[in-house]
Amino acid sequence: MPIVKVIEVIASSDKGIEDAINNAVTEVGKTIRNIDSVYVKDIKAHVKDGKVSTYGVICEISFRIEN
Fold first, then answer.
1. Residue 44: CATH number of its domain
2. What DSSP string runs through 8-56?
3. Using alpha carbons only, what angle is made at residue 48 by residues 38 and 16, rounded to the nearest 5 degrees?
4. How far apart are CA 15 and CA 5, in angstroms?
5. Tell me, what's the pLDDT at 2?
6. Could you tell me which of 31, 9, 30 has the C-alpha nearest to residue 21?
7. From CA 42, how far away is CA 7, in angstroms rounded?
8. For residue 4, which of 20, 47, 49, 64 sits 20 to 30 Å off, Cα-Cα?
9. pTM above the 0.85 mark?
10. String of b and e for 30-63 (b: at least 16 CB within 10 Å)?
11. Domain that holds residue 29
12. How do residues 3-46 score in pLDDT, each as one tens digit?
């Protein structure tokens, strides 16, 4: 039976929420293999001069641990 581990990460993007999620997966993927899924716990946007400047996400990323 495979074991799955979950880590929590925060990522951001100036393009949008989807890009922030992709940034999270890309960065985690540099050091962790076997990523299975991403659960977005929270979404926020930073505002500058009355406009959204960056988007942020808090994600739980799950991955299988190799034997």
1. 3.30.1660.10
2. EEEEEESS-HHHHHHHHHHHHHTT---EEEEEEEEEEEEEETTEEEEEE
3. 25
4. 29
5. 85
6. 9
7. 14
8. 20
9. yes
10. eeeeeeeebeeeeeeeeeeeeeeeebebbbebeb
11. 3-65
12. 999 999 999 999 999 999 999 999 999 999 999 999 999 999 99
- The tokens for 11 are 């990522």
For the record, the structure tokens of 27 come out as 């960065």
Structural domain count of the chain? 1
d(CA 62, CA 59): 10
Tokens standing for residue 47: 């505002």
